[in-house]
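In practice, a research group might receive sequence data for several interacting partners and want a quick structural hypothesis before committing to experiments. The following worked case mirrors that situation: the sequences arrive first, and a predicted assembly follows.
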Amino acid sequence: MIEVQHLVKKFGDFTAVNDLSFAVESGQVMGFLGPNGAGKSTTMKMITGFLRPTAGTARIAGIDICDNPLAAQTQLGYLPEGAPAWPDMTPRQFLDFITRIRGLDKAAARQAMTRAIGMTELHGVLDQPIDTLSKGYRRRVGLAQAIVHDPDVLVMDEPTDGLDPNQKFQVRQAIEEMAAHKAIIISTHILEEVDAICSHAMIIDRGEIVAEGTPSALAARSRFFGAVSLTLDTQLLERARAVLDGIANSRYEVVTRGVETVISVFPDGTPAPATDLLAQVQDLIAQQDWPVRALALETGRLDDVFGTLTRKPRPLADAVDVPDAADVPDGGRA
Amino acid sequence: MSQFWTITRREFAGYFSTPLAFVFIVVFLLANGLATFYLGAWFEMGQADLTSFFMFHPWLYLFFLPAISMRLWAEERRNGSIELLLTLPVPLSAIVLGKYFAALAFSALALALTFPVWISVNFLGNPDNGVILASYLGSLMLAGGYLAIGSCLSALTRNQVIAFVISVVACFLFTVSGAPLVLDIFRSWAPQVLTDTLASFSLLTHFRAITGGVIDLRDLVFFVTLIGVFLVATMIIVDMKKGEGA
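A structural hypothesis for the assembly, expressed as tokens:
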């Protein structure tokens, strides 16, 4: 449904997007990840025909956005960054305008508006100027605008940015409801969102794809994949360190948060099933009689992968020893 | 065509969503009245015509119309809504024309609201209503010219104040090039052809010709061409910005 072919965008000497190619099929939700300035928005602006690519193109439902923008845009719903709208209009006027401009006839427009308003739960604010609405409602107005004509292709730039957790949940639910019959691209820097709604994810940095795959496959590239994390009282940390240091080849990492400490024990690199390590740690806990608050077998951390892949590679730094990579969800580049 | 009307209607309604439209119209009418009665000394002239009313339109429009046109594109850019507008399946021409005609309709409304002057002059004497009608048409054409220039310059920037200032300057140049004061300076040394060319580019020259009561096709062609050129320039600028990414 969406085919991006060798997309390049240069602003003067600066290359914002560098030879990007990917495809999103109907039924897929592609999560677009990357630090600020990685080229996510620029890519979306080119896919939707707002920016002209320096080279390459994108096809929406087989239609080239550069050669035939109007036909391609008919198939497309787009929520630009920041969910812009005309502040003086009410959501009702705004959606009415969009359905008219998209050429829906009266009956179809009424139906489409009812559906979009229902999905985004705008009933309460339909006749208030968009100007006076909260950020969450404004975002939902933008979303309603993008889906009102039931497009086959949906491009959303940070659809949940600035929403509270309940609103985020609602927007995600709305996206999930539509996902089965649409090709959807969302950009986000909320990594949990990728896990929650995306069938595919792509990490881009400085205009290039640095990783792509299903969210779980991406997360599995994390150094935490297969590690066992146990949460203990911080008071027990020294005792635990002594025990763990006593075991040959043991590698572990400690993160202390107040009274709680998380110790992540890494596999020793021998090709053994991850459950072996879990069993070993469980044995250790039983042996030492530690009051463990939580115990988990790590399936990998997306934020760790994100941090490792999108930081400026420093020549002397060992990728494994990047300090507090797990605590930097947004990457290092501003 | 229906998309053009949809855009025009939305834009036109946009003018009235804030009190600004009413403030604008009231101030415009007041300024018009002051110019006519004080500067133009309409009563003292003792003539039943509206010469002293229309005489000041180029100078009033110079400041009032850039205030309308400055928001046409600059505001969309500032607001981010330009991204929405330009990714809807609408031809750029429909957007540029729709916006322009909404601005023109708004100015036409403000101009139409000067009708009490017309009623007064008919009440007090027997003016040549044909000339008055022609003058109103000329005034609307003049407004159209200023707005087209303003639309083009508004597309250049995201800052409305800058759009306003450069529009005033540009409109001033297009006006003053036909003022006797400027033409006299050139007339003293430049060949007649140059002076005439300069004057022919002035909105003032063509406006004066129409308000004189003679609707010459050449004057109309001038205004329509000027408007056309600046609207096409608006389209080119908006389209160019798609490549730049501004």
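Before designing any experiment, note the following. The CA atoms of residues 229 and 296 of chain A lie 5 Å apart. The first helix of chain A runs from residue 40 to 47.
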